[in-house]
Amino acid sequence: MDTAVLPSTFVLTLLLAVGLFFFIRASTKDRTQTTQLISEQEEAVFMPQLQEYFRSRSYRVAEVDHEKNQVTFEGFVKPSIFLAVFLTLLASAGLFCLSLVFALLFPRFGNIFFVLVLFAPLSGLFYWRKAGRLEKVLLKLEPQANQQQTFSKITVVAHRDELIELQRVLPLKAAE
Questions:
Q1: Minimal CB count within 10 Å: which of 19, 70, 88, 170?
Q2: Are the C-beta atoms of 16 and 97 separated by less than 8 Å?
């Protein structure tokens, strides 16, 4: 094999390993967002729908602030088995490639570098421990009166995926 190719292959493999490391770290990142939504239903009709929605998603009411017209829901988010296995497989492939490049660069040491692949399950374990957490959803209801109709403006602070699902299930529009 051409020895001029090995250093560039090594550098590219290291760059891929760094990218893999940051990908695994980002799998547990908090993706909380704030959005404002509008419901054309009245508060008396809409609030029970919201409560039922969050109850069905295994959230419970943690706090009610009547002065601010604000409700806080809590729920435990379980980590994904699929994602834990997927991250472990990605780490295995990345460490195998890195081990292969090391073995080609340093043939004197033999196949000792392939021991690195044994560290791949740590990525799945890292994800599993960090991803399972208590999530909070904050709802602030602001009744609005228009000349033609009454509607509710809701400020929601929640995980990005929870906001998408909330808009999909309930008749809500994004506020302008």
A1: 19
A2: yes
